[in-house]
Amino acid sequence: MIFGWIALGVVVVLVLFVWVTYNGLVTLKVRVEEAWSDITVQLKRRADLIPNLVEAVKGYASHEKKVFQDVTEARANVLSATKEGPAATAKAENQFESALKSLFAVSEAYPELRASENFQKLQDELVDTEDKIQASRRFYNAGVRDLNTKIQQFPANLVASIFSFKSKEFFEVEDLASIEKPVDVKF
Q1: Percent of the chain residues topping a pLDDT of 70
Q2: Cα–chain-centroid distance for residue 152?
Q3: pLDDT tens profile 149-166
Q4: 171, 175, 176, 182 alpha-carbon torsion, rounded to 10°
């Protein structure tokens, strides 16, 4: 009789452990997916600002066609890369950052452009969006860290493997210096 109660107690504890661990893994996975969604929203917001910025610069520097083409192409690459995951997005981000630096380098040669209220407003919005992208990236990477740690820890790794939970990729951009601080345009 007592042996039956012990066996029942062990089964109940085991079921509770699997239940709590599974729900914890699901919660972490959903947080990571939500954080990635936040990143894509901010990248889209920034991408929506770029055509206005390009048009503002075009008005002053219409002969810089290659710069405008590079920025437009890099913008499209970032938007399509978000569907492919963090690694592809990071690669596209590096290309985009380089193109954006070229655009701002062109704008430096035109003092009347830098003095334009419209250009100033667009630049301020871009800096704000860059800050939001950085914050979203940190939140996403923290979620990925928590999920990956939970998936690898014993005994949660047993539950994770039974229910096919997979580790997620960090969103790491190669040129961290250009991402960590806002775009610097001298006036």
Answers
A1: 89
A2: 23
A3: 999 999 999 999 999 999
A4: -110
